[in-house]
Task: structure prediction
Amino acid sequence: MPPNYRRCVVCRKIDHKSAFWRIVRLFPSRKIQLDEGMGRSAYLCPQESCLQAAQKRDRLGRSLKAPVPPEIYQLLYQRLSAGKSETPAGATAATAVASTSVDS
Ligand SMILES: [Zn+2]
Result:
């Protein structure tokens, strides 16, 4: 993987880290917060499908090996609704769904 590229914990898409939300479990306090701090991090696409799946399947909690407080999800949902106009028609979400449902 090229430097500064990361993988979404839900859909496994690889992109530059600036394209993702970063959720960090701080070291050594184990506090979970967004964007900044030293510690274990998980990356998530800023889109509804990945956020919903992350919450439903506890993907962030598993990746961080710590429970993710509901406030974190609330903050991400707020960001989602705040930034909705920037996302063009959800094209990437539709592609991801189509490619993962082939074998069912
Ligand atoms: Zn994703």
User: Anything to note?
Assistant: Residues 8, 10-11, 13, 45, 50 surround zinc ion (CB under 6 Å).
